[in-house]
Amino acid sequence: MSIYNYLVRKPNGEILSMETYRGKTMLIVNTANQCRFTYQFEDLQKMYDRYGKENFVVLGFPCDQFGHQNPEDGEETKHLCKVNYGVTFPIFELVQVNGEATHPLFNYLKHEVDYREFGKASMQEKMLAEAIVQLAPSFLDGRNIRWNFTKFLVDANGKTVARFEPTDSQLDIEKAIETLL
Question: pLDDT category, 15, cuts 50, 70, 90?
Answer without folding.
Answer: very high
